[in-house]
Design a protein that fits this description.
The chain is an alpha+beta fold. The protein contains five helices and 14 strands.
């Protein structure tokens, strides 16, 4: 997969986006709760939509569903793919249908622009340094291990403290979702803290790749973990990363404060029997 430098050129205003990824919800002092959401435009340009209080939306969308919404460049986020979204403007449209060729229909749009597809994580990191690339697709060469990693005690403590603080602010009518003059929700939804995260150890196709360890933040994986437990989630990710069965690709996204650190924010896993779409 070649790397072509393409400048982001989205205009502020209403845009049509095909959603390909959502991460597990996180508490937010400013926005109460957010879900980092990613998609592509009709021309295949990747976009990060933030903040979205997904569980509080009146109209919710699924992966591989088209939405239209009003966007504007996020001036507080230098990453070129990051856009603020007016969540009240979201209108859900067609889903790419569940059919034998669904992966092909998805691929025709998701991978239309190869500027964000990389042969290796090292090439991606170079693109991040040179032009700020923060969302990418990389095909793993080899999966070495999938494991559960316990989160440190300070993360648990910080989460519990933030829950208490947000509840106080809500009860005092002080919390506000300030973007686009949103008001606070009538009540705070319970958000479960996942005490362990799935982590994949893998090699990319870089000539000097020494291996990568990345946590999986994909909401579907995390939701399975929340509902069915660690073992079921571990089993599922082990299955989806079996490269004898699936033509696996990773959707990667970086951290705002640590732009060279990427995590797995989505999985692409058509069965290998369907070679046309792999």
């Amino acid at each position: 997969m070649g790397v072509i430098v393409v400048a982001m050129s989205l205009q502020s205003g209403r845009q049509k986006i095909l959603i390909w990824g959502k991460t597990y919800p996180e508490l937010s002092n400013r926005y109460f709760e957010t879900v980092c959401t990613a998609g592509v435009t009709e021309t295949g340009l990747p976009v990060r939509l933030y903040p979205i209080p997904y569980r509080y939306l009146s109209e919710q969308f699924a992966k591989y569903q088209w939405i239209t919404a009003s966007l504007r460049k996020n001036r507080n986020d230098p990453r070129p793919e990051s856009y603020k979204i007016d969540w009240d403007s979201i209108q859900c449209a067609d889903k790419i249908p569940s059919s034998p060729d669904e992966w092909g229909k998805r691929a025709a749009i998701v991978f239309r622009d190869d500027s964000w597809q990389f042969r290796s994580v090292e090439e991606l990191q170079q693109a991040q340094r040179s032009r700020g690339t923060s969302i990418a697709v990389v095909v793993p060469r080899e999966i070495r291990r999938v494991e559960l990693v316990k989160r440190p005690a300070d993360e648990i403590r910080n989460f519990e403290e933030k829950v208490l603080e947000l509840r106080k602010r809500l009860s005092a009518k002080q919390a506000q979702l300030t973007l686009f003059e949103e008001t606070v929700p009538p009540e705070m939804k319970h958000l479960e803290f996942l005490r362990a995260r799935l982590q994949v150890s893998w090699f990319c196709h870089g000539d000097n790749c020494k291996g990568h360890k990345m946590q999986v933040l994909d909401w579907e994986v995390c939701e399975l973990q929340r509902r069915r437990g660690d073992d079921e989630a571990l089993k599922k990710v082990c299955d989806l990363t079996d490269q004898t069965k699936y033509a696996l690709r990773f959707f990667l996204g970086n951290l705002f404060l640590y732009p060279q650190n990427f995590m797995i924010v989505g999985l692409w896993y058509p069965k290998r029997a369907n070679l046309l779409f792999s």
